[in-house]
Design brief:
Layout (H helix, E strand, L loop, with lengths): L1 H11 L2 E5 L5 E2 L4 H14 L1 H4 L21 E2 H12 L4 E5 L14 H7 L7 H16 L2
Parallel strand pairs: 1-4
Antiparallel strand pairs: 2-3
Length: 139
């Protein structure tokens, strides 16, 4: 949702709050890669997904689907700006106290059980997303 929210704010010229001076790192994942992971779950079927990790554990396995790469928020926004050809109106704010500086998905189990492997870096995903966004918004 971040790409959509940022693109919408930028195209409308609305200010957007950027926490941590844009130095926070997050795992941004292109939708096609998430769909591939979901299809991998369906293809694997109950034989893989239904095995509990340990006795007394959850009845199904839980898979993390992500890009497994932490990207700077500032760079992510810059790619959206570049693809839109318009600068964001940024309002910087301190990192929320409970927030962490860096997150990324641990996809080891999804790789091992489902063969999950994200293939779309943000340098490719953002322009694709913005092309869709422009078409959808009629821009």
């Amino acid at each position: 949702m971040a790409a959509f929210l940022f693109a919408e704010a930028i195209t409308e010229g609305r200010p957007m709050t950027v926490f941590g001076e844009g130095r926070l790192k997050r795992d941004f994942t292109y939708i096609d890669d998430i769909v591939a992971g979901l299809l991998g779950c369906l293809d694997a079927g109950p034989a893989v997904a239904a095995r509990p990790d340990e006795p007394g554990g959850p009845p199904h396995r839980i898979y993390n689907l992500g890009n497994h790469r932490a990207e700077l928020l500032d760079r992510y926004i810059a790619l959206i700006e570049q693809a839109l050809g318009k600068q964001a109106v940024r309002q910087h704010a301190a990192k929320p106290r409970a927030d962490v500086a860096e997150t990324y998905a641990d996809i080891a189990r999804a790789q091992a059980d489902l063969g999950f492997a994200p293939t779309t870096p943000i340098d490719e995903g953002i322009p694709r997303f913005i092309a869709w966004f422009r078409a959808w918004k009629g821009l």
